[in-house]
Amino acid sequence: MRIAFSANNPWPFTNQANFTKPSSQCTTMTNKEILNRLYQVILPYKGKLIISMLTMVVFSALTSAQAWILKPVIDDIFVNKDSSVLALLPFAIILIFLFKAIAYYVYTFLLQFVGQSIIRDMRTRLFTHINTQPLSFFHEYPTGNLISRIISDVSQIQNAVSNALVSSLRDFFQMIFLLALVFYLNWKLAMFAFIILPIAIFPIVTLGRRFRKLSTRTQEETANVSDRLYENITGNRIVKAFCREDYEDKRFGFQIDRLFSVTIKDARLRSLQHPIMEFIGGLAIALIIWLGGKEVIAGSATPGTFFSFLGALIAAYEPVKALSKINPIIQRGLASANRVFTLMDIEPKITDKEGAISLPPFTRDIVFQDICFSYDNEDQVIHNLNLTVPRGEALAIVGSSGGGKTTLTNLIPRFLDIDSGSIAIDGKDIRDVTLASLRQQIAIVTQQTILFNDTVYNNIVYGDLEASAEDVRNAASAAFALDFVEKLPKGFDTIIGEGGARLSGGERQRISIARAILKNAPILILDEATSALDTESEREVQKALENLMKNKTTFVIAHRLSTIVNCDRIIVVKGGRIVEEGTHEELLARKGEYELLYNMQFK
Ligand SMILES: Nc1ncnc2c1ncn2[C@@H]1O[C@H](COP(=O)(O)OP(=O)(O)OP(=O)(O)O)[C@@H](O)[C@H]1O
Ligand SMILES: [Mg+2]
Question: Which residues form the ABC transmembrane type-1 domain (predicted)?
């Protein structure tokens, strides 16, 4: 049966809105490259793997012994009725099963151990790797996609390594031992069985290629589903506000149907593979019974030899079948490994350069000289900008939306790197110093408050992990957060929810200000929230900011007059250029851009 399903138009609602298919971000590595990389990952666990493989060989040998023992059981006990053999054989069987059980335990446990270790190592490495990436990386890779790679793809790799790659060795050994037995018992019959073998291997090889392609697509679509989930869950308030539940349902449905469609294709192939293999096995058994039966009837073989032979052959077919099942798992693992290694190979664009020095404590000035910047080397966002900010100055950056204010401040801690020109702190180009020493001296309060789902205390102490409980309390107090924190059910130990969901907007801002106060860095970047607060919390936030800015060199992207008048100097940024600069009064007197802004925004 073919399920009528088209991935190109799986959803009849697409005429309402064009749900776009996200692009896949994957280069293709050769199998050899991937296996090489996997080998590196497995290397630390080589010892355990070798022990596991050795016990596997023992296990396989004992499986053959099991088949072989049928011969004395039938010939000596049932046909010849030899009671001395009857006294011995049950013990031999018990021993075989006992050692097989021990071998099984050792090799499966060690394999699991290695597999789980690989998962742990790869996830840790990916996490660290992602953390070294600059801001632009996160603009390019959607959150859900990254999560999917770290969770789902890494699991697929582990699955391939411990369940497939290594189990296939066990199956291989088993096959070798059993076939040796088969040849030992009756080589002529064994030759016939061998004629069948290539027929059995053929479907394994041909289906393998298809599995690989489908797996890559399955993992891509899984990542897309993960993206949709992430956005829908984090953006749920907007979904509700715009009554877009239906729209989101359809969009998710569209994505999940794409995943369904590739998964079904994969399932169809796999469902097909098993019966094909079974049928080929049946052919072999029929042929062997016919030929072997003739030999037993003619008296040239004992019934014991025949049953032992048949037992060994059937047992040998199990690993062949298992090898065919393993193939899709390996293909899936390889596809996932490709996605994971591609991600790991993305060199962080912003790193410490060789011989980078530690930036000494900030004393003099920050100088922007002729800086240009563009996202993705496309449209230039900052054009030949020059600016000198002496230590201790509070600089207000104002301008209409999209002018490049946030971009400009993101250049100082090197969240983004300039294309040309230079930014120097005390005469040292920020690209010549280590990122850690640079960022150590900068505290940031962002436009959207970013808090973690943790206690109030842990969110504040994030600013300085060495700070004492008293320092944290003082910081909260300076940020005008102490009052409301103490009123929370568990005070500083209250968990604030994802992104601080259990706090009001103003409270969230004050917690993030407390965090910056605790860091006590000489340079401060403040991207004032554009969302308006009520006058009461507005005033509290304002006072918190004043405390934060004390004795600091501050870049503040200001949206409020109260912030601007507290500053020493104002620059007006428009289209990536400084179009005006001066004090509030000077700029108003010029009757230019600033006056326009003032009349629109601040008045
Ligand atoms: N990740 C990005 N990729 C490409 N272009 C971007 C990216 N981020 C911002 N831009 C563009 O850069 C320009 C400056 O954006 P920026 O965020 O610096 O503006 P802003 O002055 O901070 O505006 P606002 O006052 O609204 O916060 C805008 O035209 C914007 O479209
Ligand atoms: Mg901005």
Answer: 50-332
Neighbours of 74 (CB within 10 A): 19
Q: Do residues 551 and 391 touch, judged by C-beta distance below 8 A?
A: no
> Does domain 31-344 match CATH 1.20.1560.10?
yes
For residue 2, CA distances in Å to 8, 203, 207, 261 come to 16, 20, 18, 12
Ligand 1 pocket at CB < 6 A: 139, 375, 381, 399, 401-407
Q: What are phi and psi of 307, to 5 degrees?
A: -70, -35
Q: Which residues of the chain form CATH 1.20.1560.10?
A: 31-344
Smallest CA separation from ligand 1 atom 7, residue: 375
Ligand nearest to the CA of 375: 1
The number of the ligand nearest the C-alpha atom of 401 reads 1
Nearest CA to ligand 1 atom 22: 406
- Residue 21: predicted pLDDT: 56
Q: How far is the CA of 448 from the centre of ligand 2 (A)?
A: 9
Identify the nearest ligand to the CA of 415 by its number: 1
Residue ranges of the chain that CATH labels 3.40.50.300: 451-520
pLDDT at 207: 77
* 133, 142, 229, 340, 562 from 25: Cα distances, Å: 16, 11, 19, 11, 46
In the numeric block, the tokens 């004390």 are attached to 550
> Using one digit for the tens of pLDDT, what is the confidence trace for 77-112?
888 888 888 888 889 999 999 999 999 999 989 988
Is the Cβ–Cβ distance between 521 and 443 less than 8 Å? yes
- CA dist., res. 192 & res. 287, Å (int): 8
From 135, 379, 405, mutation site for ligand 1 pocket: most ligand atoms within 8 A of C-beta: 405
By most ligand atoms within 8 Å of CB, the mutation choice from 135, 372, 374, 375 for ligand 1 is 375
Q: Compute how many other C-beta atoms are within 10 angstroms of the C-beta atom of residue 449.
A: 21
pLDDT at 562: 79
What pLDDT does 396 receive? 94
Mean pLDDT by 10 residues, the chain (603 residues): 39 50 64 88 91 90 87 84 86 92 92 89 94 89 89 89 74 85 83 72 74 83 88 85 87 92 89 81 81 84 83 79 78 88 90 92 94 88 94 92 92 93 94 94 88 91 92 92 92 88 87 92 86 70 85 89 86 93 90 87 68
CB 470 within 8 A of CB 431: no
Distance 190 CA to ligand 1 centre (A): 74
CA of 260 to the centre of ligand 2 (A): 40
What atom of ligand 1 comes closest to residue 136's alpha carbon? 1
Residue of 566, 573, 571 lying closest to 549 (CA atoms): 566
- Ligand 2 center to residue 407 CA distance, Å? 7
Task: Indicate which residue's Cα is closest to atom 14 of ligand 1.
Answer: 404
Nearest residue by C-alpha to atom 6 in ligand 1: 375
CATH number of 451-520: 3.40.50.300
Distance CA 233, CA 250 (A): 15
Using alpha carbons, select from 566, 563, 564, 467 the residue that is nearest to residue 515: 467
CA angle 270, 273, 275 (to 5 degrees): 120
Q: In sequence order, which residues have a C-beta less than 8 Å from that of residue 378 and are 6 or more positions away? A: none
